[in-house]
Amino acid sequence: MKISQFHDVIGLPPLGGDVRSDWAPIEARTGLSMPVDYKEFVSAYGPGSLNSQLYLFHPRAADNENGLRLEFLWQEAAYVFEQMSLIDPESVPCSVYPSRGGLIPVARSISGNHVFLVPPACAEGNWSVALEMGAWVFLPMTFTDFIWNALHGQLEAPILEGEPTFESEGDMEP
Question: What is the pTM of this model?
Answer without folding.
Answer: 0.92
